[in-house]
C-alpha cells in the first residue's frame, strides 16, 4: 500500500497529493564523519538529490525546505519529484532514478515483504484526520456502508484505512461494492452522485466536505481514530544508506530546518506550501490540523518498541496483519528489517 499517486514533473505542479563498498579505515572514517554531523566545506561541490513525493499536507516541511533552498548549507540541491501514483515510487527508488522517497509505512512493509531492501531513515508525520472515509449525510456510521458503493484507490492509505475501519466494525471489503478511483477523482465522483461513500485524503477530503454548502457530506471515519496507523516516512534503499550517509543526514537536517521555519513563520510557510499544493494559505492552515509532524525529540520513539501505534513495532504488526488478510503479503517482515534509526539517533544526541 501507499499514499498512491504517475510521475509528473521534477517540481510541484498545482494540479498534482549496489553501493560501493569501501573498506577498512575509509568506511569507518566516512561513517564517523557523517554521524558526527560533518558538513563539507562551502567550496565542496553541490550534490543534486531527487526525492520522490506526492501532494500531501504532511510533507509541508519538505516543500518549504525545497522552496527556500534550505538544503544548500548541507551542500545539497534537493529536487522533489512529484508523483500522482505513489505505486511508481518504489520502482523508481530501486532503479536509482530517485535517491530517496516519501512513502507511507505500510508501503514500506509491503516492499520489504516482497524482498526489496528499503528502510525508513526518518519519521515524517502521521495522519491525524487528514485521511478519511467521507459519506453522504444519510449515512451515520461505518456499519451503514454495508452493500454501498465505495470509491477509493486500491493499495493506498485509503484502502488501508477502509480495511481497518471495516474490520473494527465487523465488516470486510466483501461487504461493499468497491470502485477503483484515484484520490483526486473521489470528490467529482461523489459530487456527481455516482457513489455515496469515498475514501481519500487532503486536500480532497476538504473539497468533498465543502460541496453543497457543507451540508451534503460528512466524515464517517478518519485517521484521527487510529493515530499513527497511517504514517509517512523518509525512505532510502539499502545501497544508498551504505553509499550516501552524508546525503541522507543532510536531507534530514534540511527537513528539520523546514519544520522549524513553519513553527517560526507560519504565515509565510503556509503561503509556500499552498503554492506547492495548489491551495490557499488558509486551506493549508486548516489541513495542517489533520497531521502531526514529528519533532526530532520524538523521532527515536517511533523506532523503539512501544505500547501504541505511534511506534512502528506496534503499528507495523497491525498493518502486517491487515496486509496478510487482504492477500497483499505472504509473510510478515521484522520491524528491524524496515527501519534504520542511525541518522535520527545521531542527530538526537546533539
Strand arrangement within the widest β-sheet reads 1-3-2-4-11-5-12
Percent in strands: 15-25%
The amount of helix comes to: 25-40%
User: Quick one: how many beta strands?
Assistant: 12
Shape: globular
Termini Cα gap: 35 Å
**Residue windows where pLDDT falls under 50 for at least 5 positions:** 1-42
Structure description:
- It contains 14 helices and 12 strands.
- With 350 residues, the protein is an alpha/beta fold.
- The strands form 2 sheets. It has a 7-stranded mixed sheet with strand order 1-3-2-4-11-5-12. The protein has a 5-stranded mixed sheet with strand order 8-7-9-6-10.
- The protein is globular, with a radius of gyration of 20 Å.
Topology, please?
Layout: E1 7-9, H1 24-35, E2 47-53, H2 60-67, E3 76-83, H3 89-94, E4 100-104, H4 105-113, E5 118-127, E6 131-136, E7 149-152, H5 157-168, E8 177-180, H6 186-191, E9 197-201, H7 204-209, E10 217-222, E11 231-237, H8 238-243, H9 245-264, H10 266-277, H11 281-287, E12 291-293, H12 299-302, H13 312-325, H14 342-348
Parallel strand pairs: 2-3, 2-4, 7-8, 7-9
Antiparallel strand pairs: 1-3, 4-11, 5-11, 5-12, 6-9, 6-10
Q: What descriptors fit this protein?
A:
seven-stranded mixed beta sheet, five-stranded mixed beta sheet, globular, 12 strands, 19% strand, 37% helix, alpha/beta, 350 residues
Amino acid at each position: 500500500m501507499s499514499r498512491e499517486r504517475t510521475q509528473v514533473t521534477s517540481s510541484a505542479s498545482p494540479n498534482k497529493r549496489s553501493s560501493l563498498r569501501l573498506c577498512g579505515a575509509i568506511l569507518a572514517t566516512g561513517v564517523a564523519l557523517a554521524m558526527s554531523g560533518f558538513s563539507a566545506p562551502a567550496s565542496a561541490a553541490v550534490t543534486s538529490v531527487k526525492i520522490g513525493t506526492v501532494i500531501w499536507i504532511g510533507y509541508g516541511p519538505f516543500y518549504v525546505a525545497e522552496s527556500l533552498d534550505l538544503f544548500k548549507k548541507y551542500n545539497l540541491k534537493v529536487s522533489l519529484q512529484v508523483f500522482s501514483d505513489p505505486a511508481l515510487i518504489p520502482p523508481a527508488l530501486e532503479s536509482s532514478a530517485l535517491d530517496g522517497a516519501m512513502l507511507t509505512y505500510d508501503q514500506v512493509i509491503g516492499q520489504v515483504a516482497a524482498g526489496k531492501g528499503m528502510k525508513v531513515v526518518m519519521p515524517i508525520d502521521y495522519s491525524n484526520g487528514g485521511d478519511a472515509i467521507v459519506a453522504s449525510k444519510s449515512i451515520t456510521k461505518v456499519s451503514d456502508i454495508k452493500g454501498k458503493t465505495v470509491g477509493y484507490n486500491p493499495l493506498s492509505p485509503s484502502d488501508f484505512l477502509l480495511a481497518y475501519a471495516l474490520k473494527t466494525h465487523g465488516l470486510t471489503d466483501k461487504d461493499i461494492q468497491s470502485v477503483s478511483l484515484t484520490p483526486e477523482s473521489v470528490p467529482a465522483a461523489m459530487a456527481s452522485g455516482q457513489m455515496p461513500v469515498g475514501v481519500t485524503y487532503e486536500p480532497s477530503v476538504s473539497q468533498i466536505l465543502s460541496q453543497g454548502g457543507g451540508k451534503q457530506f460528512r466524515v464517517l471515519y478518519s485517521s484521527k481514530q487510529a493515530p499513527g496507523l497511517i504514517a509517512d516516512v523518509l525512505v532510502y534503499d539499502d545501497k544508498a544508506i551504505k553509499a550516501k550517509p552524508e546525503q541522507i543526514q543532510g536531507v534530514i537536517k534540511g527537513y528539520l530546518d523546514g519544520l522549524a521555519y513553519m513553527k517560526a513563520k507560519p504565515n509565510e510557510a503556509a503561503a509556500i506550501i499552498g503554492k506547492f499544493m495548489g491551495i490557499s494559505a488558509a486551506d493549508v492552515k486548516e489541513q495542517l490540523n489533520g497531521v502531526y509532524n514529528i519533532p526530532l525529540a520524538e523521532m527515536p520513539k517511533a523506532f523503539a518498541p512501544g505500547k501504541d501505534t505511534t511506534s512502528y513495532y506496534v503499528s507495523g504488526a497491525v498493518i502486517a496483519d491487515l496486509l496478510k488478510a487482504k492477500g497483499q503479503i505472504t509473510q510478515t517482515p521484522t520491524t528491524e528489517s524496515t527501519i534504520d534509526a542511525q541518522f535520527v539517533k545521531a542527530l538526537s544526541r546533539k
